[in-house]
Amino acid sequence: MRRVLVGATTVLFATVATGCSATTERGFLPKGVTSESDRITTLWVGAWIAALAVGVLVWGLTIWCVAAYRKRKDDVNLPEQLRYHLPLEILYTVIPIMMISVLFAYTARDESAMMDTSARPDQIVNVVGKQWAWDFNYVTQNAYETSVPVVLTGDAKDAEQLPTLYLPVGERVEFVLTARDVIHSFWVPAFLRKLDMLPGRVNKFQVTPTTEGTFMGKCAELCGTYHSQMLFQVKVVPKAEFEQHIADLKAKGNVGQLPNTLDRQPLVPEDQDKVPTPGSNA
């Protein structure tokens, strides 16, 4: 039985390690597609390594104490009881402070770098969250795109209806995040970044997409009944395709910028009554 258990464990470990080696190297994070992804992944993996090292130490000491000081048959008296042990108490205080200080220093360093918006962006995009859809103001290009809530049916064709944000590959993009009603959160998992969108407040961050493709985005803050259906897509494309998309928007009359007020009504299409509410059977 022991051999069977050892063999089964070995096979399971080998299978998991082979299938997930790249994922485990990233600490089970998705593969980042921006120039900032390496910094985020390094901090994440480093924090997990430090936590695992502490865990192994604590588990090891716990198991050692259980084994070394277990009660034996010939034990009749309790071992010597110590009320205070000043060196140990100092050790228990100093080491955690040092560990937290190191973790805080690396986190503050990387957070400061990731939230720095002093660099001049190639593109500025104002992303506006609203229940339960998205508006995109291409500020640099003086164009916009708006959307209404999408009725998700579970069909693969649903993706074609989702609002889509176009970004040029290799260009620094500054996201200016605002909300039109309640608190939302702009999250693109492949960017390894998310940031809250607060009514009456402007939040910003910058990324440089380095990989072409279509990536899913979503609201990461509970914002009402259809929060789970507040999805969008990000298409990172060559510059020519990006400019063509902007030209198409302007050809449709989407020139200028949508207002950033907290009133949703000016953006409601005239045929809003014909647009089914998410989850309805209309």
Protein described:
This protein has 282 residues and is of the alpha+beta class. It folds into two domains: 77 residues; 135 residues, Immunoglobulin-like (Sandwich), CATH 2.60.40. The protein contains four helices and ten strands, in the order αααββββββββββα. The strands form two sheets. The protein has a five-stranded mixed sheet with strand order 3-2-1-5-8. α2 runs antiparallel to α3. It is elongated, with a radius of gyration of 26 Å. 17% of the residues are buried.
Strand content: 15-25%
Q: Would you list the SSEs in sequence order as H and E?
A: HHHEEEEEEEEEEH
CATH topology of the largest domain: Immunoglobulin-like
CATH superfamily of the largest domain: Cupredoxins -  blue copper proteins
Strand elements, count: 10
Count of the separate structural domains: 2
- Roughly how many Å apart are the termini? 60 Å
Mean pLDDT: 84
Largest beta sheet: strand ordering: 3-2-1-5-8
The 3D shape can be described as elongated
Name of the CATH first level of the largest domain: Mainly Beta
Number of separate helices = 4
Overall structural class, as computed from helix and strand content, comes to alpha+beta
Indicate the radius of gyration in whole angstroms.
26 Å
Assign the CATH architecture of the largest domain. Answer: Sandwich
> Which residue ranges are poorly predicted, with pLDDT under 50 across at least 5 consecutive positions?
15-19, 266-282
Helix content: 25-40%
Main sheet?
5 strands, mixed
